[in-house]
Amino acid sequence: MAPPTVTLLASLDPLLRERAIAAARTHDASLVVVRHELTTLAIDDTVHRRVEGPGRCEDRSLPVEGGCCLSCLLREDTLSVLAELEDRSVLLVLPPAVEPASVAVALHEHDAAHLTTIATALDLSHLEPRLQAPEPLAAIEDLGDDPRTAAEVLARQLAHSDLVLHSGGPERAVTLAAALSGLQPQRMVDDPRWITIGLHDGEAFITRLQAGMPACRGSVRAHGIAQRCWHRRRPLHPGRLLEVVEGGLLEGLVRAQGWLWVATRPGTVLELDAVGTSFELGAVDAWLDAVVEHRGAHPRRRELAGRRWDPYYGDRVQDLSLTILDGDIDEVVRLLDACLLTDEELAQGAEVWRTWPDPLAPWLGDEDELLATNLPIDSEGRRET
Question: Which of 212, 173, 202 is nearest to 308 (CA)?
């Protein structure tokens, strides 16, 4: 028996999600639709799971007990359901609060399915205001203490999709969605053929998630949208970086995502994930130049590091993808460049840099201790504002 063939569908827009599901069922009458609904959490502390397909319609309430890891519950239940659906075509419909990358990684790690496509159904009329306004995710799906904004979840849905579905909208919104996803959005929400588009490359997907892999999604200048890469080798001054990021100086910023290295923490890969006025800055891995053994690193990461290795910096690099809406992207680059060490600061060397005050330490902790915990580390070391 072969594992099921699975398509993931994510959306913050319930109407478009249902239209995409209906279209997929029109194409394939044998399709099994699996979905978890989280709205019952606030009512009776349960997650509602529904499985619908030919000759099968099951509903089950899964209790979420005190201290229970919700993401663990969803992962384990999804894997359990898929194990019962060998040789079937499955549409796995994600709740708004569940980001597709986490589910795709679990499917790959457990070899639980043949994943064909990660699709996002997108209402283009909501795209720009949703990205610019700090709307809490709780306004769409309330999980109680989830600090994420709808913009953050939407940006990550687009970033990790293989296919972006929409039902029409202005060219400016199409261009913005294309910039954030690196894809050409398709007007196919109501087209049954969308379910047949198999675009997922599992190896490439896992590779893109590795720390230090290229973050750039290309260059765009159209309809008030500008996107470009910021690639530098010098380290950042932590104080000046936080002044820019926390001070709201990046006017017009829609998205900034990628990898940074800071002079006071030369061993740690920092990930910046900023959407509008919200940002996360977290320690996610070690630079290969800072560890003795590289065997635990992804082969493509080792290959990339070897190609760009610098005698002084090693594999350390600043690598951000920047997307701006109705702003001056060159000014954003100038502000980021001003956060880099000056010639005089650079000449002092790493031993001196590490003695500087480190404003990142209160939430990231001591770097030596962090590196000793066998990075990559989890998201507990992230700062959110």
Answer: 212
